Amino acid sequence: MRATVTKIGNSTGVILPKAVAERLKIKQGDILYLTETPSGYAVTPYDPEFAEQMEAARQGMSKYKNALHELAK
User: Residue 37 sits in a domain of what CATH number?
Assistant: First the structure.
């Protein structure tokens, strides 16, 4: 797909084709994250750093399930 880079006020913006916005399930005002990859940049509607933190939390909760259950009493 092709996107257009344009000047928006004092900033530079990228205009995404409607099909891309629909596929990413994003709308005007949503925040996108740019992640540097070996082949360039990836654009995602979620924070990859937060996703990593949540995965670490899930693993910890799974490992200490019984202790967390007892603490919740």
Answer: 2.10.260
Q: Phi and psi of 13, rounded to 5°?
A: -125, 165
Q: How far apart are CA 48 and CA 58, in angstroms?
A: 15
Token pair 């797909």 in the structure block, residue = 1
Q: Is 45 helix (H, G, I), strand (E, B) or coil?
A: coil
Is 6 or 47 the better-scoring residue by pLDDT? Answer: 6
**Enclosing domain of residue 37:** 2-69
Domain count, the chain: 1
Summarised one tens digit per residue, pLDDT across range 14-67 is: 999 999 899 888 999 898 888 888 999 888 887 777 777 888 888 998 999 999
